[in-house]
Amino acid sequence: MKLLIVEDEPQLARLLQLECQFEGYEVEVAHDGEEGLEHLVTGAYDLALIDWMMPKMNGIDLVKAVRKEGLDLPIIMLTAKNSLEDKLGGFEVGIDDYVTKPFHTEELLARIQILLRRRQLRSGEERANVLKHDHIELNKTTRQVFIQGEEEHFTQREFDLLCHFMSRPNRVWSRDELLRDVWGYDYEGSTNVVDVYIRYIRKKIKDEDQRYIETVRGVGYRLRDDE
Fold this sequence. Notes:
By secondary structure, the chain is of the alpha/beta class. It has two domains: about 1-125, Rossmann fold; about 130-225, Winged helix-like DNA-binding domain superfamily/Winged helix DNA-binding domain (Arc Repressor Mutant, subunit A), CATH 1.10.10. About 45% of the residues lie in helices and about 20% in strands. It is built from eight helices and twelve strands. It has a five-stranded parallel sheet with strand order 2-1-3-4-5, sandwiched between helices. The protein is elongated. The chain starts with a strand and ends with a strand. The model has no long low-confidence stretch (mean pLDDT about 85).
């Protein structure tokens, strides 16, 4: 895990760097807000410790700039300010946690660990909600489908059917099973509707030669995964 400390007091910055390194973190240090912003925009960090009062750019303005850049890493603000108004204002601009000076390094390290664990859990959940197969990427949370990196519009039924295949690659599904799982138990229409939607999906995923969704004669369909 890689951390950035943005702190203008050299002794405190060095102490924090050593303590975090002792815990096994890779640590870099910036000594003012502008330097911190440059590091955060160009580097890849898992968490940032940012002092509130700094030259050139204070901590609040730095956090605003970081969030404006679309960076979502956890941020802990180090500050002597402890009023509720100050803290609420910080949370509004995107601060994840506060540590009030003076503080015990054990408390700070515990807060770092909690935020990093939370970030790992969130990343794991996000990965679990994204299915990939060759040039196809499907996001179950946002219900988006990308074909060769370009978003393609899928109707609700098309999305659900493709998601069903991508969740269990190489599994052969009969038409009756697909009707039950995707259309619902109460669907009373013809099983030919499955064939129609398979054609729609094949066209959208550029699968005219059936390299991906394969027809298994006499049974149904499967999403081929030859890896």
